Automatic annotation (TrEMBL):
Ranges in a coiled coil: none
Biased composition (Basic and acidic residues): 344-354
PANTHER family noted in UniProt: CYSTEINE-RICH RECEPTOR-LIKE PROTEIN KINASE 3
Annotated organism of origin: Eutrema salsugineum (Saltwater cress)
Protein name (database record): Protein kinase domain-containing protein
GO process annotations (BP): response to freezing; response to insect; response to molecule of bacterial origin
The keyword Protein transport belongs to this UniProt entry's keyword annotation: no
Region annotated Disordered, chain positions: 344-383
Length: 396
């Protein structure tokens, strides 16, 4: 019965144990390690589709005929069975059209494996940002891109505003946006931070890979609110419209950072120049520039000024207008490589300076913001201390 659906509502969401074996958990399918091995042809490297901060990902064929993305969590992510399953149970209950579906997991011995719905058209970093049509064969025309942006915004608005307790994704980036056969976007890896043992503070390498998406107040001060996700979304939005990564060292120095470039063009009223030339001029210029401006709104230095995700959805769809004059400079972090992730308590003001938190906006803005929490979201102090380990349920 290893691969049947378990349902155990009476257990109140907690896994029930029989003679030390996991017998049941709400909604979550428990896979035998043997089935996972068979599905991936013994983790054959030919079936490996990715390697991320949490471990390796394989494509696999499950016994029931489904194709799955199988994420083998690294040793660091090993939690006790009970805690692991409790978290998995929470994640598996979160379902939305724009979120990747978790089929189940495997928790035999030391193994901690997640089994997800496999998305046919890969992630945005390996398709759109890796050369678009020429590389992936996927035609990212303007309406496809607009649809992807709105879908991601809806998925994130759902995590932020509808799920209780709210979920901060913390790792919104192009590789966590997967596309199904119809190019509808699905956000992946939400809730993964919950699977990290609370004492695991060494997340700096994981964060380093995605630093271009990190909101300054989160990267430097460990101030984690939904507004940090909204910043990352803003970066992603600009990547989708421009068809380039947030950082591109092959470009001339002054063009390397997408946000800097976007701000410069915005000030000159030439944002349209940032729209992907791969669209061959076939796009709705008003809409594309609006999207870029929404990206700028989301990446403003002051978290309070960034809109909520439900507002972003309405801005994208044109149900709500933007007051362009109010957009302030994006918050940027430089000196990426040396940055160490640390808890906010130990971060002294002089260290903030050393880490080159460049705040290009007015100094009054900076001082009113520093050391305070993002009141617009009014998270508890647990939110920021959760920075290095649990990044998930830091909401009230
Ligand atoms: N559900 C999925 N369907 C298809 N491909 C996936 C899926 N999940 C992950 N991948 C692929 O595996 C890669 C690595 O994923 P992951 O381990 O989450 O690392 P990261 O998101 O940090 O790049 C992704 O970039 C994507 O190409
Ligand atoms: Mg991922």
């Amino acid at each position: 019965m290893g691969c049947s659906w378990f349902s155990c509502r009476k257990s109140g969401g907690k896994p029930s144990e029989v003679d030390g074996e996991i017998a049941a958990i709400d909604n979550v399918k428990i896979y035998k390690y043997k089935e996972i091995r068979q599905a991936t042809d013994d983790f054959n490297s030919l079936n490996k589709i990715g390697e991320g901060g949490f471990g390796s990902v394989y494509k696999g064929n499950l016994k029931d005929g489904k194709i799955a993305a199988i994420k083998v969590l690294s040793a660091e992510s090993r939690q006790g069975v009970r805690e692991f399953l409790t978290e998995i149970n929470v994640i598996s209950e979160i379902q939305h059209d724009n979120l990747v579906k978790l089929y189940g997991c495997c928790v035999e011995g030391n193994h901690r494996i997640l089994v997800y719905n496999y998305l046919e058209n890969n992630s945005l970093d390996k398709t759109l940002l890796a050369g678009g049509y020429t590389r992936s064969g996927i035609l990212f025309d303007w309406s496809t891109r607009a649809n992807i942006c709105v879908g991601i915004a809806k998925g994130l608005a759902f995590l932020h505003e509808e799920v209780r307790p709210h979920i901060i994704h913390r790792d919104i980036k192009a590789s966590n946006i997967l596309l199904d056969k119809d190019l509808s976007p699905k956000i992946s890896d939400f809730g993964l931070a919950r699977l990290m043992p609370p004492n695991m503070t060494h997340v700096s390498t994981r964060v380093a890979g995605t630093i271009g998406y990190l909101a300054p107040e989160y990267a430097v001060r460990g101030q984690l609110t939904r507004k940090a996700d909204i910043y990352s979304f803003g970066v992603l939005l600009m990547e989708i419209v421009s068809g380039r990564s947030n950082k591109n060292t092959r470009l001339p120095t002054e063009y390397q950072y997408l946000l800097e470039r976007a701000w410069e063009l915005f000030e000159r009223n030439e944002l349209v120049d940032l729209v992907d030339s791969g669209l061959n001029g076939v796009f709705d210029a008003e809409e594309a520039c609006r999207y870029l401006k929404i990206g700028l709104l989301c990446t403003q230095d002051s978290p309070k000024l960034r809109p909520t995700m439900s507002t972003v959805v309405r801005l994208l769809t044109g149900e709500k207008d933007i007051d362009y004059k109010k957009i302030s400079r994006p918050g940027l972090i430089s000196d990426f490589m040396d940055m160490k992730v640390r808890g906010p308590v130990e971060t002294k003001p002089e260290e903030v300076n050393r880490h080159s938190y460049t705040n290009p906006s007015s100094s009054s803005n900076a001082s009113s913001n520093s050391g305070t929490r993002d009141n617009s979201n009014a998270y508890s102090s647990g939110a920021s201390s959760a920075y290095a380990g649990n990044t998930f349920s830091s909401t009230i």
